[in-house]
Amino acid sequence: MVMALSSSSSLILNTTDYSPHKPLHSPSSSSSSFSSSHFPIKPLIHHSHNLPISQKWRRNVSFFTSFLKKPKDASTIKEELLEAIASLDRGADATPEDQQSVDQIARKLEAVNPTKAPLKSSLLDGKWELIYTTSQSILQTKRPKILRSVTNYQAINADTLRAQNMESLPFFNQVTADLTPLNTRKVAVKFDTFKIAGFIPVKAPDTARGELEITYLDEELRVSRGDKGNLFILKMVDPSYRIPA
Hints:
Pfam families: PAP_fibrillin
Largest sheet: 8 strands, antiparallel, barrel
GO cellular component, one term: plastid
Helix content: 10-25%
Organism: Pisum sativum
Protein name: Plastid-lipid-associated protein 4
Shape: globular
Strand content: 25-35%
Oligomer: single chain
Keywords: Plastid, Transit peptide
Radius of gyration: 31 Å
């Protein structure tokens, strides 16, 4: 739920085939008393009940071991996700294919979310750094790179239902917001005050609102999805940080 702090109030908020036997041919000598016609050999038919015991065993083992494979745990999926976004400059360099791949991995992580009620969890408190998003207003991709914020942070106080988003240089803009729980993982967001350069207050318009759903939360990583369809991935950098009153 990191918010764009410039011209927008957007949120940041993965059988062996059996060939038929060839008929036995008799020797070319006409004196031979044996011929293939005396001993016709029927081709083997590919039915499971005719498979050799060893073949049936291998097939059954393969069938049942598929049920024994454990799904990937959260730590493995997190590593996969972090590797996928490492070279994407927080999403600014992501192609549509990259975005799709990251989204698929994020969905796998969301499926093993260990925190079912994140708004009731102390893990939510602290200062988070945005490491990936699909929000172009947050990434400021229409600006020259030198004028884009280098780092975006978001702080949340779950007990007071307050949020604060902060940009690093070159502008150090900030914005604060009130959070209203809609359920145990989704909030409505109402921005109240922007601070230009971190200290010049500007009241946010009443239309500066949004919603954010926290879809994955642990002590290291948070995944959220905004009401505009954007994906946000943040890492914890300071669990002791509190939003100034």
